[in-house]
Request: fold
Amino acid sequence: MKIVVLIPYDEYRRSAGARIRYGRLASALKSCGFELRLQTVGSFLPDRVDCDVLLISKCHDARSVIAAAVASRRGILVGVDLFDDYFSQVGDVRLAQYRWWLSELLQSSSFALSSTPKLERVVGEYSSNLPTHVLNDPAPEFSPAHLSEVLLSKLQKVRQTKRMGLAWYGMGDNLHFSVGLSDVAAFGPSLASLARDGLDVQLTILTNARALDADGLSRLRSLPVPVCVKEWSEAAEQEVLAESFATFIPVSVQAFSAAKSLNRAISALTAGCQVFSPGYPLYRRLQSFIYEAPELLLADVASESMKLRPETLPSLEQHIHEHASSETEAARLTRFLRSLPTRPVDGRPTVAVIHGRETTAEAHAFVRSAGGLSVASPFCDANLDFDVVFRSKRDGFSALLSKRARACLRNTAQWQRRRRLKGRSYYEVPVSPALPSGTIKPEMPLPMHVATYRRVIEAMQASMEELFGPCQVTVSEHSPFLSPLLP
Amino acid sequence: MREEVASSPLSVVSPSPRSIAKSTSALLRPDQGEIIRDMSLFHNQPIVSAFLAACSIVVAPLHRIRARRAHDKAVRHRIALLRLSSLFDGDWYLDRYPDVSASGADPAVHFLKDGWREGRDPGPHFSTTAYLVANADVAATGANPLIHFLEHGLSEGRSALDHQPSSPLPLPPCENFGEAAPCLGFKLQRQARPSWRRAEQFDRTRADAILIRGEHVGYGERSVRIVSQFERLAALSGLAAPVEVHAGVADQERDHSPVVPVLVDAWYATTAIFRTRWLGQGSPSVLRAYQHDPSGRGALCLVGEAALEAGTSFADVGLTNSYFPILFVHSDPDGLILGSRLIAFPSLSRGGTHYPELLAAAPERLGKPLDPLGYGDALAAGLLGLRSGSMKPAIRRLACHLGGADGTSPLFQTDLKIWLRTAVGISVVPRDVPDDDAGQHLASKVQVQPALERPSGGELILAGDMVPTIQILQSGAGMTKSGVEALRSAMPLLVARADHSQPVTLFDAPPTDVAAVIEPLPDKALPWPIYQSDCGIQVTDRGAPAAIRVANCSHRRDPERLVPSMVLNYAPREQAIGWLIHSDEWNPDSLAQSLHALGLQDGAWGDAIAIIGGARDPAVELCRDHFQGRVLVANSAAAAASALATPLMGYLGRGILLHDRRCSSVLAKMVEEAGVASAACIIVHAGQRGRGWNVGLVDAGNLAVPPEERSGADWVDLIWGATYPVNSPPERFWVARSELVSQWPTADYLPSGQVHLCTSLVTASDLELSVSHGSRVRVPTAASSLQVTALFG
Reply:
């Protein structure tokens, strides 16, 4: 069985998500008879791809929706893989584009994967009957014998030197949420409790450079323990985890944080670090290895019986086997995929992309290469060879059809008049959307776009059905002002 | 003359060696002493050859001279740096190293040249060896360790004290700062450091030893006074019965003793380090700081100990709890107690959670220095009064509305919860708990079991990101006029920004129980603190801020300004609105667009338009296009208002476009409430920016905002999503009940109990950004509105 993971761009292969989630899984899947490969959406040809499963990962635009529609009609099992929660904040206008994208994508999906049970519930809110599988992030390889030595050595060092190195690593900021360094600062007072007991506590922060702006650094300045800040890299993470006695992973209750995977805690534990995680109990599945209160951590240091110690390594192995083993996850995933009903081949009904105010030439080219129609809305002023152009006039709407689109018309007997637009030849047909009279133009003021957008797009969707029969229509809209208004 | 000619690069005259030397020196880079090899300007090759040959003879000595001069200058600079630093002590150096003294060498020169290489220390507070051991990178460079520390290490955060072994005592991380590397060349007055006795060296058997709760705090005959100070510390920590405190004078040791240093400033260096600055009165003294440790069964702890010099000194306190009071005890170097100073509420200091409250309480708000100690003493008197029972509290318990909370604010943290429970005698109970595991987690984190309630008073409901002010916690109870009615009202709120350099904003909403103002949206944070009582009790000082919120976002993104929230508690309206339009002020294109958008409003099917103008006005035709027959023409607003038969009326002034289809329904729902005279929303303007847009705030209603705060109405961002009373609605847009509008022409002010509301749950657009010439429809002024005040620290 062949699985193609659709990714947004080449650089994404090096991201933590792709590296940990797919990289660690690929070889285990191979031993189960599954081949997994990553492919960028830009190079993807949905009507020609040779695969059994198409998994869409963070391709938040119209191309992935079209890819899913075309592939599913070819009988390919299409699924979406979710491991960041940008979907449950229903009141947040900034994230409307993500929510709309997911709801569009799920229409063609046969299944969903999620990194946590919480995200599984989020998928359930969008599509209650969709088969969903929790695919845990696989852990890195580790040697229990070596880990045992590391643990003893780290504890001995803390007791001898009275110095405790803590590490926090990860993305220090997020465009939409106060997370990362904000959480470190918010839960910083709990570090004071560690330092009050006569220990020299030092915190090393490994994070992305963007997070280290004036606000980020001033947050770190307020921490009650000395802080060393370094830029994150995979090598630096390994180095700091090797040196640190514990990791400090505070978690806030906001949905984005509470839906994160076990990955960071697992990485820390397998590197021989204790995990001090105040706040929301995100790691409750690893509860026997997690310190939520500093007092317990100190008490265990004093009694030399840390939660992660040589005697508890068998339990850790068991937990990892249960929650983070690449073999277990591969076996579960293959079992899940095999359990899904096969998708019947569905002919080739029309797919189309309506281009809103801010669209991309890539979306236009993608839908055409997939055999679909590229449709310009009255809000769109891109100069592309659209198949259909909707125009708003004082007395109503009309559609200009290219020769290619004309061939797809359901009722070829409709009245048609030849028109030229931007040097291209079209056939004009009247449409009857239920819209108030008025002229919609790309150059009208933004409030007018906002006021009319939803009704116009709805009317266009209806018109597309009227003109071409049943078709799957999606919208390519990148304007943050207008994407919240998508129907 | 010949030499001058030869110095010209274009000269063809054969140069003498001397002239070559001169011209070469002009080609030396002053910083590197290298010869610039680009000789392309010399066309005469023989001359170039002679020039290059001479360079090796003449330039090298010049280079060395320059280098030596630079070296001497650097040495002089470093000697000056050493002598200015308190870490270098020449007298100590000569005492410690008799061989140096016997040689007659200058101690600074000796240390700089040889001493540090021989492992000698420059003074009692800097260890050459330890610094090099702790900083291997410095050792590798071969730099003088003290010079490195002064020039680089200090600013890089390296410690001069790292070499000292960790102390088992909970001592602060540093006791005194070394002077910063000087950037100005002034001479610092040097003081000999006194030798002093640490608390652990006190002799408990001495007759004049003062022991407090088992802790030896010093010696003295004035034991009664110092004992009472410790009693006050315990009382304010909630660990002893309240003692009587008189505000203002308190019983601080303000005995103006010439030897007791004066506390000049205090702030939070980190969340756990409280930094104080003292002005010494002449002779050296020793400062000790004490706090009760609430997590250690209330034990009295020494949390800081430092020698203070004459002049300015700093001392750090390693807090056991960042809210508990701190007692500073001054003694002479041998431990004889000279005086004390109690800080009842350290969190009122800069960087503290309650600092915004201090700004709000500042005398005249501006122009006079803040007095955190005096203010804290007054609050302490109130708090102890409540705890002793001499006053009735206004607040019986605190409740935390958990909608929209993320569990990161102080209300969920141990220090504040323990302080509230132990020192204030009140605890927080959760309410409106979200029905999921996150909600359960928040509920468990915000409360301390068992819940502690005061005997009487109302309930103060806070959002999860708010903190109660000390003032509200110590407020006494008053009674409403009737003494029986239930009360539910918004309270004043302080909003601070995460960036401490920005001002704090005080929002004071007038007392109102209008649900649109005080009720939060589902899953959203409470917009204001709410005071609720069911037996006629109210807060005596209602104008005092009740809570502090730290805004995690001080400005809204442009899309949020157009669509503040995707989820609103509303349904499309069923009541029609009659819209008043002065056609003569409108641009025809704008009016067409505005009418188009009006027709797309949810529930607009029955709306009517009243054109104030002439029947032949082109606007009439436009309106007929959009609203079929539901258009009338009147010659005045009053006539139009009386002619419209719709239950609601709206005013649509020049350039206003309702871009959000929910807008009129939200406002219609607001005016359904009793006491709401009109409802409006914030007006924004979307300006073109390249192919994109930026959205600015235009009008947030008329209210008590000082002129300096009006520009941009940025304060709205701090209460985004809230609904608030205004003196009058935005001049070009509002919705009201028709029967009320009909009464407006005859009134200057709204009847008592009626309010105009403005909301930021939805917004409307101004297409033209035109200058307003005032409302064309008379709207009476409301007696009260939200008051907004910027507070500068």
Summary: Confidence is low (pLDDT under 50) at residues 1-60, 162-188, 246-256 of chain B. Residues 149 and 160 of chain B are 7 Å apart (CA to CA).
